[in-house]
């Protein structure tokens, strides 16, 4: 028996089991009635009743009938077509009240509602059963519908499944595909709503239906959403279905069109538009077919040639071969080119041509507006969808949740649409979680977590869903909620995965709870069932946490535990430990760790990060010679080329040890190796040249690099240069740099002005210091763009002291303006005084 036959048998067995339960209940009820009547004498022969002396209408001859049970009354109402009465009675059943509609009645109820001419009214009454009907009941009805080829009932059941939040198992999807096999529009909706990759049996049922309908376009869409490993099997399915339909006229034409369409799409994927056009031009003489046109239009759009796409679409439209898929592809092309008006024109034309827009018609516009950060466009699309009778789906909501949500009201608007989607699947929940994290609305995430939990009913959320929530609340710094979710997951007997545990450990470490993370991992390690979850990534995350808290002892103890349990460290583990050594000044422990890397099985080869970390550690510990030696060894091995990070670390070491010649040599090597210097590189070079009394050379380096690499020098580099000028007693150059900064459109920050004022004070230029302080507070020219940054408290104190202390008029004015600057130009209160300054200070006049 093949796998597909086995699954079909299992599915049939499930329905058979359901029918067996129904017949068993009927048999047991009949047996009980016979026993009761036998014991009470109510099954006496007719002649005995007549001998009783009274007629059939007499008291003795009247049969005593037991009142029917609640279940029997429901069944009778359904049998008589009184669905309203059946629903009313069913609400009172104990099982229904407990949360599940009895499986022996649910299929009959679903079928009765699906066939009702008052479907909308029935669905209003069915709200009482939302989330209470099992998927196997729906499966049983769908199989009956497929057997009777009742497509109308199938469409109603498709609506019911969504509105009643009936879980759709893989078997349910297969049943839907078979029940709706003759309706291309319904099949397309199934495909569009299903998440990729499609389950193999579901895709098989869809493709068999498409082959019978000769819907090549939908077949190709299905192949786009299947797993690569299933593609070969499914191609065989299509071939068999085509062979089986050979007796049908045009079956050969259908296969040929599918083949040529596939050839064109393959050319499109390879960027070969000319090849695709050649296939089309050869075959359109033989076939006047919508699918051929759709394929070539799609290829043109994919290759970015919207002009040819428009030309082919016009040909198809003028020939009467354009369907809604043709319009969707053409709209996609216009949207890709930003031609929104042309795309809207085609959307309006769909209805004018008597066609019906699909979800794909509107989702293209939604994606366009979302990608262009348009806050209002998506909502216009949603309104148009609703006006066209196309209901939003989980995919619609996922697109909306990716939009530019700037406030709580934005996400609330999207969630109003989400509230219309039943059931809410876990994929949609993940989108909600990401949006809630972005907008900081974690209270909404809790609400939808509860909704998803209650909706699932007796089933629990999956480990990935718990992992997503744990990660979200971890980013929100809510450790209490993180632990609550973990405990709930364990309580519900949901087995954590490696990813779930990773999310938990990462959340704890990110919130400085590394010790708790370590205890949790040890507990998981001690349990046989969860031991395998504790992997290299988990250990490395905790090691990183101990590294950040500078708990080197705990970090190394965990590293030894990791090796003892046979968990192989990787480069991330080793580099994390090396970084801790570099930051903590423990470079004497580096050789032993490098030996561990060599001894690992397989050996852990040092990468560029390893070398950069070691270089940084030696430079931080004042041992630039060793850092240079590491660079030399790396050059000799020839596996890696130094990057900017490594060069900057070495330049920083040279700056600390006042080694300008080595720094200049490194700069030349950077240029030779094609590593462009950054502003950070310039900052260190300027500091070094300033300390070594080579200020003029600092100016030259900045000029040369900015010209050679087109680098715009930032305010941090200029601040370092100003400091270097003052340190070398070139105050005039430092002050001149202030005007140059303003001319270049840069915005001096608080540090820049503080360095300028302090430098002037040390140079004895008190008046210039006062003038620059006024500029810093926005009360003198030249003024920088933006908010006046002021100067820091230490510098202000030094200025007040230089002006004669707090009681001097100049000092009071300086303090008042500093306060006024912080208050945004409002009322000013002099520090140390309860009086508000009413007059402008002397320097403003």
Q: What is the overall pLDDT average?
A: 80
Assign the structural class, choosing from mainly alpha, mainly beta, alpha/beta, alpha+beta, or little secondary structure: mainly alpha
Strands, total number: 0
Strand count, sense and closure of the main sheet?
A: none
Helix content: 55-70%
Radius of gyration, in Å, reads 39 Å
Keywords:
845 residues; mainly alpha; 46 helices; 69% helix; elongated; disordered N terminus; disordered C terminus
Mind explaining what this structure looks like?
It is a single chain. The chain has 845 residues and is an all-alpha fold. Among the domains are: 49 residues, no CATH class; 114 residues, no CATH class. It is built from 46 helices and no strands. Helix 6 crosses helix 9, helix 39 packs antiparallel against helix 40 and helix 43 runs parallel beside helix 45. The longest helix is centred in the N-terminal third of the chain and has 38 residues. The protein is elongated, with a radius of gyration of 39 Å. The N terminus and C terminus are likely disordered.
């Amino acid at each position: 028996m093949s796998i597909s036959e086995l699954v079909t048998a299992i599915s049939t067995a499930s329905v058979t089991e359901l029918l067996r339960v129904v017949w068993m209940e009927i048999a047991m009820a009949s047996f009980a009635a016979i026993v009761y009547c036998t014991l009470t004498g109510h099954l006496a022969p007719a002649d005995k009743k007549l001998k009783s002396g009274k007629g059939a209408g007499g008291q003795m001859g009247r049969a005593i009938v037991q009142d029917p049970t609640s279940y029997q009354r429901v069944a009778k109402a359904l049998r008589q077509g009184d669905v309203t009465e059946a629903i009313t009675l069913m609400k009172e059943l104990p099982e229904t009240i407990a949360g599940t509609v009895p499986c022996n009645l649910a299929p009959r109820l679903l079928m009765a509602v699906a066939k009702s001419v008052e479907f909308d009214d029935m669905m209003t009454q069915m709200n009482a059963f939302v989330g209470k009907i099992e998927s196997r009941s729906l499966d049983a009805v769908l199989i009956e519908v497929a057997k009777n080829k009742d497509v109308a009932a199938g469409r109603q059941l498709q609506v019911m499944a969504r509105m009643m939040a009936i879980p759709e198992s893989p078997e349910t999807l297969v049943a839907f595909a078979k029940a709706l096999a003759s309706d291309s529009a319904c099949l397309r909706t199934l495909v569009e709503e299903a998440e990729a990759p499609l389950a193999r049996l579901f895709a098989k049922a869809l493709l068999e239906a498409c082959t019978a309908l000769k819907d090549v376009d939908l077949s190709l869409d299905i192949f786009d959403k299947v797993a690569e490993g299933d593609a070969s099997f499914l191609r065989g399915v299509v071939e068999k279905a085509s062979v089986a339909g050979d007796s049908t006229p045009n079956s050969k034409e259908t296969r040929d069109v599918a083949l040529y369409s596939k050839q064109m799409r393959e050319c499109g994927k390879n960027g070969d538009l000319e090849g695709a056009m050649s296939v089309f031009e050869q075959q359109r003489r033989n076939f006047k077919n919508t699918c051929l046109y759709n394929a070539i239009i799609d290829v043109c759009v994919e290759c970015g040639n919207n002009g040819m796409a428009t030309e082919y679409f016009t040909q198809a439209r003028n020939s009467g071969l354009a369907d809604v898929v043709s319009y969707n592809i053409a709209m996609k092309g216009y949207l890709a080119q930003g031609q929104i008006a042309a795309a809207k024109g085609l959307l309006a034309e769909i209805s004018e041509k008597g066609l019906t827009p699909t979800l794909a018609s509107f989702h293209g516009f939604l994606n366009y507006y979302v990608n262009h950060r348009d806050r209002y466009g998506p909502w216009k699309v949603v309104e148009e969808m609703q006006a066209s009778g196309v209901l939003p789906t989980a995919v619609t909501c996922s697109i909306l949740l990716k939009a530019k949500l700037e406030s709580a009201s934005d996400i609330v608007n999207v969630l109003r649409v989400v509230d219309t989607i039943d059931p809410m699947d876990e994929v949609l929940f993940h989108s909600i979680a990401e949006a809630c994290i972005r907008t900081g609305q974690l209270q909404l995430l809790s609400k939808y977590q509860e909704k998803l939990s209650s909706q699932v009913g007796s089933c629990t959320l999956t480990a990935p869903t718990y992992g997503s929530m744990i990660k979200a609340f971890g980013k929100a710094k809510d450790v209490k909620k993180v632990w609550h979710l973990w405990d709930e997951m364990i309580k519900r007997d949901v087995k954590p995965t490696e990813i779930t545990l990773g999310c938990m450990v990462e959340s704890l470490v990110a919130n400085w709870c590394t010790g708790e993370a370590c205890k949790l991992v040890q507990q998981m390690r001690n349990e046989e069932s969860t031991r395998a979850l504790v992997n290299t990534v988990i250990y490395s995350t905790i090691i990183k946490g101990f590294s950040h808290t500078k708990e080197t002892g705990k970090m190394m103890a965990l590293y030894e535990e990791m090796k003892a349990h046979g968990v192989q460290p990787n480069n991330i583990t080793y580099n994390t430990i090396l970084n801790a050594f570099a930051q903590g000044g423990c470079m004497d422990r580096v050789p032993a760790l490098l030996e561990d890397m060599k001894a690992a099985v397989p050996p852990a080869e040092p990468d560029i990060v390893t070398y950069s970390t070691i270089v940084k550690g030696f430079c931080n510990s004042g041992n630039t010679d060793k850092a240079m030696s590491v660079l030399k060894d790396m050059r000799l091995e020839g596996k890696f080329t130094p990057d900017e990070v490594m060069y900057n670390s070495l330049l920083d070491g040279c700056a600390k040890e006042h080694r300008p010649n080595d720094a200049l040599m490194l700069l030349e090597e950077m240029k030779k190796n094609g590593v462009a210097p950054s502003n950070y590189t310039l900052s260190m070079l300027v500091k070094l040249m300033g300390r070594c009394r080579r200020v003029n050379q600092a100016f030259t380096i900045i000029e040369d690099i900015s010209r050679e690499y087109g680098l715009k020098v930032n305010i941090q580099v200029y601040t370092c240069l100003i400091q270097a000028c003052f340190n070398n007693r070139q105050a005039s150059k430092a002050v001149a740099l202030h005007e140059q900064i303003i001319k270049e459109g840069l915005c001096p920050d608080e540090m820049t002005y503080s360095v300028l004022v302090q430098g002037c004070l040390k140079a004895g230029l008190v008046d210039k210091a006062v003038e620059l302080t006024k500029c810093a507070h926005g009360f003198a020219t030249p003024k920088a763009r933006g908010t006046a940054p002021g100067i820091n408290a230490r510098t202000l104190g030094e200025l007040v002291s230089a002006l004669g202390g707090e009681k001097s008029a100049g000092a009071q004015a300086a303090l008042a303006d500093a306060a006024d600057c912080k208050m945004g130009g409002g009322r000013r209160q002099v520090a140390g005084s309860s009086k508000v300054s009413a007059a402008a200070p002397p320097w403003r006049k």
